[in-house]
Amino acid sequence: MQKLIFKKKVSKGSRFNQIYIPKNMECLIEVGDEVEVKLIKKHTQLFYSNIKTLSNFKEEITQKIFSFLSKFNLSSVFIVGSFLTQKINYHDIDIVIITQKKDQKSEQALYHQLIEKINLNLHLLFIPQERFEHLLKACPLTRSMFNQYLSNKKTNLGCKKIIDKKHLNFLLMMPEDLLEITLNSRVFFDNLRRLITIERFLENKDSDIDKINKNLENLIGQRLYQRMKNNQEIEEKTIEDLRRIIKIKLNQIRKLIQNG
What we know:
This protein is of the alpha+beta class. It folds into 3 domains: 5-38, no CATH class; 47-151, 2-Layer Sandwich (Beta Polymerase, domain 2), CATH 3.30.460.10; 165-258, no CATH class. Helix content is 47%, strand content 13%. A 5-stranded mixed β-sheet has the order 3-7-4-5-6. A two-stranded antiparallel ribbon has the order 1-2. α1 runs antiparallel to α3, α8 packs across α9 and α9 packs across α10 (222-229). The chain is elongated, with a radius of gyration of 24 Å. The mean pLDDT is 88.
């Protein structure tokens, strides 16, 4: 945000954008006097999409984030993720910042300044505008991420999807790796959810994260769902069962990609 200061003569009338003088200052500032106007704090609006109104505490934090970021030349700012949907079970605040172009040095500087200002655990993702527009059309994970969001600007993210086979195959690389390597249960959880998200995208179903989570819970059972979500240790036999599910999902998705 630029430093905004301007001078204006005091006048009588009812014109729009007129500067009003407090009644107790009428004897000090009169018609014809020249005054200086300075912007002290930018008013910040919150625009919700598919979420209920936040608590006062969360709204205050969001206002501070948006107000601070308004000082920079950014296209848009979004809050996404569990900070919006969970009352207390969130680890950080996911902030997606849409920029005009990629500038890693400026992004790092902005991150450190924001951390100093907010003093909370923040996760910042910078995406250039052109890349963001493509991801909204082609990336199932991006579309799911932005199924629920809070923005500093009124934004319409609805767009026709496209099938980018190269990008979809890239998203499948990590689930494919899990057929051979063993990582913690949360990684299996996230990648199963990824596969369900991609499958729903290709089947022209919505990207509602609650429905995706419910699909996964129905697929593996409530008890295992909770254990994996909390990154608890799981048995080798359970891992093999999960690999079978992953393999089936991968085959189904590849057929959907092949059919366009």
